[in-house]
Every structure is written in structure tokens, then in C-alpha cells.
Amino acid sequence: MIDSQNVTGAIPVVRAWFLTHPHNDHVNFLEHFKNFGFDKYLHFEKIIRKFPPKDWVPQNNWEDPNYPQKIENILQSMKGTEITTAKRGDVFDFGETKFEILLTADEAPDDAKDLNYFSMLIKQSVGEKTILWTGDMSDSLSKKALLLYGDKLKCDILQVPHHGTPNCGTMEFFKTADANLHIWNIAKNTFLNPDYMFAYGKFPTPTEIYNMPVQKIFCGEGLKEIKL
Q1: CA–CA separation, 202 vs 166, rounded Å?
Q2: Buried b or exposed e, range 67-79, using 16+ CB within 10 angstroms
Q3: CA angle 190, 192, 193 (to 5 degrees)
Q4: β-pair type (181-184, 13-14)
Q5: How far apart are CA 84 and CA 50, in angstroms?
Q6: Are 172 and 140 in contact (CB under 8 A)?
Q7: CA distances in angstroms from 188 to 37, 41, 94, listed in the order given
């Protein structure tokens, strides 16, 4: 979240950035932050993360097992930025906006196969509205969330985990969250493309989630005003 009052008097300040997990499509901005000179135009006051154990090696052969440590090294080199390790139950309060950490890498299920199984789950409260930010949460992680929180997962807005892929949470999780609005981190046309990996109709759970009677926002496809 960005502070409208710039403490430096020159550049905007991001009060907090939550890193759900160290996959490059979620954190690679950090790789370019200094290389491209973005640190001259933007300052992070606090970055909150909890990465998997250093000795845990992802099983998927397309992943770089050294990438989480690479990102951690970048974080530690960021002067003037508070790097915070999250734990379940932590609450970060920013005036009218509050973030509660529901899951961290410490709650990863026993069948963890890649970094998505270590994704943080965050509940944001803004006034009377609540939002669940799920990162790339897996089916197994959604089951763990249900065991820990049950009906407390009810929210107004839900970010559909892992771009709506087949391993994006169970239907029980979505029905328990019972959100009025789903945010899809993918283009609608891509999800509906029968030749693409997210293809509508090929996978039962994503298709059922897509067909739930809720409002939808597909990121990158012309945002529209949504009134809840």
C-alpha cells in the first residue's frame, strides 16, 4: 500500500509489500529494482515475507532451487527498508486497513511439491470489507486453511489462487469464502482459450469456480468499477 504523504518529500513511499512466495512472477520486480534505477522513484518502508526453509529443494525441474535465496539476498541489501518475517497470527495495522497473516511457509502441507505449497494467505480488512489474498495457494494449502479457520475464511473479495489453474484450491474453500467478487490474475481470453493450460471446460474445478454466481475482475483486461 502506498502512502500518499511522501516522507522523503521526493518519491512515493510504499508502506508495506507482502511477498506471498518467492516465484519469479511474483517477486522479480526486486531483481530489476536497483538495476533499472527504480529505487530513485519508489521507496519501500516495509517488506513482509516468510520463505520456505533453505534446505528445501523444489521438485519441479523448471524451478531454480537457488531463487528464494537470491531474492532474500536482494532484500537484505535494501537500505532503509524493514524486512519482516511473518508468522501465523501476525497483524499489520495501517490506519483503516489491517492485514492478518493466516498461513505462512511454516504451515505448508506434507505433500508440498513446489513453492506454491508455501504461499502465504493474508486477510485484509478495509472498514467493514474483507479481502483474501492467496498468492499461488494450492489445493492442499486450501484444505489446511479450512482446518485452521473454517467459516472465518468468509470474505467479500477473494483473489483466485494460482491464476485459476487446476491446483487453485478446493471448491469447499471457495464456497466457505463465499465472496461477492473474485479477482483473477489472468486475462479472461487466456482462461477461455481451449488451447491454453487454463482452458475453460478442460478442468472441472476451475470451470466450476468460473461459473460461480459472483462478480469477476480479470486483471489486465480493462478494469471496470465494481460496487459491492
Answers
A1: 9
A2: bbeebbeebeebe
A3: 65
A4: unpaired
A5: 8
A6: no
A7: 33, 32, 33
DSSP count for the chain of H helices, then E strands: 7, 13
Q: Count the residues in the chain.
A: 228
Provide the β-strand partners of residue 14.
Answer: 2, 44
Q: pTM score, two decimals?
A: 0.90
Three cell numbers written together for 200: 475453460
Q: Among all chains, which residue has been given the C-alpha cell 477473494?
A: 158
**Integer Cα distance of 36 and 31 in angstroms:** 9
Please say whether the beta carbons of 18 and 122 come within 8 A: yes
The helix (H) or strand (E) run that includes residue 163 is none
Q: Which pLDDT score, from 0 to 100, does residue 11 have?
A: 85
pLDDT (tens, 9 = 90+) of the chain, 228 residues, equals: 445 444 445 789 999 999 999 999 999 999 888 788 888 889 999 999 999 987 776 655 466 888 898 999 999 999 899 999 999 999 999 999 999 999 999 999 988 888 999 999 999 999 999 999 999 999 999 999 999 999 999 999 999 999 999 999 999 999 999 999 999 999 999 999 999 988 999 999 999 999 999 999 999 776 666 565
Q: Which residue has the cell 497483524?
A: 91
Pick the closest to residue 205 from 177, 174, 228, 159 (CA basis): 174
Residue type, 145: A
| Residue 78, CB-side half-sphere exposure with 13 Å CA sphere | 25
